């Protein structure tokens, strides 16, 4: 566990800053709930005047009723912003912790210690998981406290499901970046490809419902499987979650297999 | 059991040559110098020994065990990379403690002794250290767990002369305590001062392995002597071992093969004003090696 602990220790400032920022941003949205509810009719008219495509791109779809607390928080937080931030954190850490250190030459001296490749990979994965869990925990606590403060009650397991879905997205794309970095040690490639796929997955989820022919394929987007089905309203979907986790594990396994075989630092 | 053994070890990076069919054997308890110009394949060999890179063909053993996938074996190795890159935000202490944890072993008393010997302040952040000081950090972390085998890639790069002497003392000490030292270098002088045997690598192939004495005997030296009197060329033609003899005013210039002794004895018959002896470059050593081989 020494590698995991050391990496977290070296990144503790970033970790805390990121987590607090995410929590604060979410708290502000929750605090807007009462004023939104008061002026819901004017907002509704305003929304109806906007083009659907544009709204969809920002995560506001027909299926969501923006003027319930669940819908409002889905639109403001869980459709885009929170998953996006966790994906940014995940992809950043995932691409830096193996490929980034390798490019800077730091990984070589660690790998020359009595540390096997599998252990090295798993501890680096641990860094990613713990960092995302920490951010998600702060996020969850801030939303829970915020809802208490504005006196809106939502089922606790639904709150957990919403945060959990965003965590899974961070883990999926962070895991992809980690696996890509483990595959060939190029940080820019891991960062770029994982980010690109995350954007594609988001747009796929957001825009396919606008077309009748494509609407069915929305369910193949990881964004739908993690956040698009509105876990805050509907609770955890274990089937979707299992699919997401399986894909994540598959990507990680491929990265690990290659990492065990390949040259480090060339 | 050999401390290091490779058998037909080859490594290609795509089409680029690393090393070619390298058969290397380092005996336990010796200081072995791995000598060659930059890009010859020294670092490639070393990185195979640490299982950082995997050979294209052939095999490598360290302390009697195959290196591939053998993490526990590295418990017994101390390694100094050719290019050092640390976590810059850490202090020396933090780095040594971290590396100690990775080995489940940290002998603080011995570590402090090493820090004192190398005159290194461990409380400073690594990013504030000069190149020479970073090299010291690298050396300390390689020695600090008293490994059975030290693998040092260009160990004295960036060290000032005093510290080079300290480093040489360290190497002799650990050798005396039973450790094996494998060090690479592109400087003949360094290897000559330290090593029992030397392997010469060139363009990925091991071209010679010999005891250090033999190498010196075979090596060439460029010598210039200035006399206080006129020179008689005939006298010098008879001195053994001199080649390319030239005279310029009161300067004599010659290439000496093997021992300098006959030349010095002959020069001592006259008043000498100046004496310059140039250490042979690696390239010259290679050339002599090839000359002597083709002559044989």
TrEMBL record, chain A:
The chain crosses the membrane at residues 12-33, 77-99, 125-147, 159-181, 188-207, 238-257. Residues 63-212 form the ABC-2 type transporter transmembrane domain. It is a multi-pass membrane protein. InterPro entries: ABC2_TM (IPR013525). It comes from the Bacteria. Keywords: Membrane, Transmembrane, Transmembrane helix. The keyword Transmembrane helix applies. GO terms for cellular component: plasma membrane. It holds the Pfam family ABC2_membrane_3. It is found in: Membrane. One of its GO terms (molecular function) is ABC-type transporter activity. This is Gliding motility-associated ABC transporter permease protein GldF. It comes from Calidithermus roseus.
TrEMBL record, chain B:
SUPFAM superfamilies: P-loop containing nucleoside triphosphate hydrolases (SSF52540). Pfam families: ABC_tran. GO terms for molecular function: ATP binding; ATP hydrolysis activity. Transmembrane segments: none annotated. Residues 4-228 form the ABC transporter domain. This is ABC transporter ATP-binding protein YtrB. PANTHER family: ABC TRANSPORTER ATP-BINDING PROTEIN (PTHR42711), ABC TRANSPORTER ATP-BINDING PROTEIN NATA (PTHR42711:SF5). It comes from Calidithermus roseus. Belongs to the ABC transporter superfamily. Keywords: ATP-binding, Nucleotide-binding, Transport. InterPro entries: AAA+_ATPase, ABC_transporter-like_ATP-bd, ABC_transporter-like_CS, ABC_transporter_ATP-binding, P-loop_NTPase. SMART domains: AAA.
């Amino acid at each position: 566990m020494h590698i995991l602990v050391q990496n977290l220790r070296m990144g503790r400032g970033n970790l805390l800053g990121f987590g607090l920022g995410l929590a604060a941003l979410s708290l502000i949205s929750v605090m807007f709930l009462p004023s939104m509810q008061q002026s819901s009719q004017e907002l509704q008219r305003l929304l109806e005047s906007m083009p659907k495509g544009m709204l969809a791109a920002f995560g506001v779809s027909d299926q969501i009723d923006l003027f319930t607390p669940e819908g409002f928080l889905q639109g403001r937080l869980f459709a885009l912003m929170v998953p996006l931030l966790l994906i940014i954190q995940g992809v950043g850490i995932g691409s830096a912790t193996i490929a980034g250190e390798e490019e800077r030459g730091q990984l070589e001296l660690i790998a020359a210690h009595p540390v096997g490749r599998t252990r090295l990979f798993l501890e680096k994965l641990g860094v990613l998981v713990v960092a995302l869990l920490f951010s998600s925990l702060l996020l969850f606590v801030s939303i829970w406290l915020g809802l208490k403060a504005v006196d809106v009650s939502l089922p606790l397991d639904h709150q957990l499901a919403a945060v959990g879905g965003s965590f899974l997205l961070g883990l999926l794309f962070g895991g992809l970046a980690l696996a890509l970095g483990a595959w060939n040690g190029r940080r820019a490639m891991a960062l770029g490809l994982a980010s690109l796929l995350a954007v594609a997955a988001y747009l796929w989820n957001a825009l396919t419902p606008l077309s009748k022919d494509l609407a069915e394929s929305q369910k193949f987007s990881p964004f739908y499987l993690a956040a698009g089905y509105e876990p805050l309203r509907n609770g955890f979907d274990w089937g979707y979650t299992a699919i997401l986790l399986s894909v994540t594990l598959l990507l990680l396994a491929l990265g690990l297999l290659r990492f065990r075989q390949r040259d480090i630092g060339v | 059991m050999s401390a290091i053994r490779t058998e037909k070890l080859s490594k290609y990076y795509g089409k680029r040559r690393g090393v070619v069919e390298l058969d290397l054997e380092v005996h336990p308890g010796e200081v072995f110098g791995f000598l060659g110009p930059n890009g010859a394949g020294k670092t490639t060999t070393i990185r195979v020994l640490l299982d950082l890179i995997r050979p294209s063909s052939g095999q490598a053993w360290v302390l009697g065990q195959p290196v591939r996938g053998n993490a526990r074996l590295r418990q017994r190795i101390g390694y100094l990379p050719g290019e050092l890159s640390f976590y810059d935000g850490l202090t020396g202490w933090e780095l040594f403690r971290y590396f100690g944890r990775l080995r489940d072993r940290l002998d603080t008393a011995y570590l402090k002794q090493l820090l004192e010997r190398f005159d290194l302040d461990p409380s400073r952040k690594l990013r504030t250290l000069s190149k020479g000081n970073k090299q010291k950090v690298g050396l300390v972390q390689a020695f600090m767990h008293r490994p059975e085998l030290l693998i040092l890639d260009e160990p004295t790069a960036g060290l000032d002369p005093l510290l080079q002497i300290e480093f040489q003392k360290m190497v002799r000490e650990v050798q005396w305590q039973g450790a094996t030292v494998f060090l690479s270098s592109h400087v003949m002088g360094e290897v000559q001062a330290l090593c029992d045997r030397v392997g010469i690598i060139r363009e990925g192939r091991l071209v010679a392995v010999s005891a250090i004495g033999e190498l010196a005997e075979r090596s060439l030296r460029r010598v210039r002597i200035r006399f206080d009197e006129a020179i008689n060329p005939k006298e010098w033609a008879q001195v053994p071992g001199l080649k390319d003899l030239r005279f310029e005013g009161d300067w004599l210039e010659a290439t000496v093969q093997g021992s300098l002794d006959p030349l010095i004895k002959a020069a001592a018959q006259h008043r000498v004003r100046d004496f310059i002896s140039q250490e042979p470059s690696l390239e010259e050593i290679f050339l002599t090696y090839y000359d002597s081989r083709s002559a044989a």
